[in-house]
Hints:
Elements: H1 22-42, H2 59-81, E1 91-92, H3 101-111, H4 124-140, E2 149-153, H5 156-171, H6 173-180, H7 190-193, H8 198-210, H9 214-219, H10 222-225, E3 234-238, H11 244-251, E4 259-262, H12 272-284, E5 289-295, H13 307-319, E6 325-329, H14 350-359, H15 372-380, E7 386-388, E8 402-406, H16 444-456, H17 461-484, E9 488-490, E10 493-499, E11 507-514, H18 520-533, E12 547-554, H19 555-558, H20 563-568, H21 573-579, E13 581-588, H22 597-617
Parallel strand pairs: 1-12, 3-4, 3-5, 5-6, 6-7
Antiparallel strand pairs: 2-8, 7-8, 9-10, 10-11, 11-13, 12-13
Amino acid sequence: xxxxxxxxxxxxxxxxxxxxxxxxxxxxxxxxxxxxxxxxxxxxxxxxxxxxxxxxxxxxxxxxxxxxxxxxxxxxxxxxxxxxxxxxxxxxxxxxxxxxxxxxxxxxxxxxxxxxxxxxxxxxxxxxxxxxxxxxxxxxxxxxxxxxxxxxxxxxxxxxxxxxxxxxxxxxxxxxxxxxxxxxxxxxxxxxxxxxxxxxxxxxxxxxxxxxxxxxxxxxxxxxxxxxxxxxxxxxxxxxxxxxxxxxxxxxxxxxxxxxxxxxxxxxxxxxxxxxxxxxxxxxxxxxxxxxxxxxxxxxxxxxxxxxxxxxxxxxxxxxxxxxxxxxxxxxxxxxxxxxxxxxxxxxxxxxxxxxxxxxxxxxxxxxxxxxxxxxxxxxxxxxxxxxxxxxxxxxxxxxxxxxxxxxxxxxxxxxxxxxxxxxxxxxxxxxxxxxxxxxxxxxxxxxxxxxxxxxxxxxxxxxxxxxxxxxxxxxxxxxxxxxxxxxxxxxxxxxxxxxxxxxxxxxxxxxxxxxxxxxxxxxxxxxxxxxxxxxxxxxxxxxxxxxxxxxxxxxxxxxxxxxxxxxxxxxxxxxxxxxxxxxxxxxxxxxxxxxxxxxxxxxxxxxxxxxxxxxxx
Length: 618
Ligand SMILES: *Cc1c(COP(=O)(O)O)cnc(C)c1O
């Protein structure tokens, strides 16, 4: 008999909704404090203490200590009164859940050393860890770890900025070459200069290096000359984009007018027909395309764009002399790639993935997750130029931990502000992270938290794959309950509920309507009031039975994508045309515990009862 496959017990990963793992956690806290205190003592053990035990008895000393004690007690009270109970399966709101004990302990231990990863000197240990986790994330994205690189950012927003920063500077390389090293791009007209493929631009830069002309060329890229009259081109994003893209266009000087929204379908995935139409139109008009952004796990719906189709489209464009940068915004869904990575690091086939999960007691048999389009999208991420992936979302790591992974580390030279060619030094550790990332001083503790998480939870099907697989299973239970829910009675009225769309990942959006109700304003107001009852802003959180989040799907952002959903709730099309906005409840199911049938059944029964009671009141 073959031994059972390796798998993590996620009961041992978190402190737990009832602090089930408190004894272990506390023991580790004691260990890390003792360990750190001893470290201080061991640094020149013969040095005298700075103050004596006698001095510690001084009334002023006692008074000062008391301040810390009191401030801490005040903070503790404030936090207990005004915090979200993320840890509980009763919380299905934003993209957050309990964080891994390993990550929390790593953070707590490291914060005592207060390392700063801006420069190597500020944190030798954690700078090395950052390079290591950057490489791990790049490998998870399917990039070749020898050619790729990645690093930790404060979040997905900054990671998106960095992706666009690289894209912008890269797009200006051929133009810079034309000025500073014209022989390298001889014969290329303006259109051709604006459409040099990413890889080719980087090869040209390397040639400039070899010719000793690198600094001259780089000085003529957008980073040196600014945009001036130059237009880097359009950035195409799906309507489901995170608003950080709008900010990025502003911050990087490209301008929000150059952000082009691609329609999404009723499944909230980027509509490839529309993308093709837009790309074709831009090519016909000789308007360069700076980048196409695909989203893997949209913020409001968890939708997964067809990355593979975007990659294919670029290939087709390149055959016709047009090219663009591809960034995948997988801030939310990025860690989900672990579902498909076997313990040998290989990206598995679809049946193989299903089997590997089944063997680890995550059975997506009913949902048949993922559908082949979602599978292909995850697979094709390895073809992107850069990817945003947030450890503080599906990595179950505390804030603030985002990350960006880049396919070709030669891009770094385009943004570096110290020695050029940072990766050409013998030691692979770039010593001055701060000189070629957007941020400066940054917490080494965050990096340690990510490193610990990856150490305990492997970035493959046995680790994150199983954990996230369980969260998807929980989301699917929820989706199915909503789908199957019959009209029910509350306070003498009858209500129906519908899920927005079958989840690509683990976000479930849904809305209620009074049976027979045909007024969209009334339906929106009903769901808004439900949201108010099932959300938390301030005051005693103990009074809350269930917590969810919400979103509004408006015509301005989503076009007609929500029309069919609104119709499914019995609202006539004319109402959608009149109101053009639908308010929905939104549940990000990050917890793995709702994959358990018994826990889930209790959850659903409790939620339904609470909803009924509330509906009866409204
Ligand atoms: C959350 C999110 C972001 C922004 O990430 P932060 O860590 O909040 O800065 C960007 N894109 C997507 C798709 C997201 O879900």
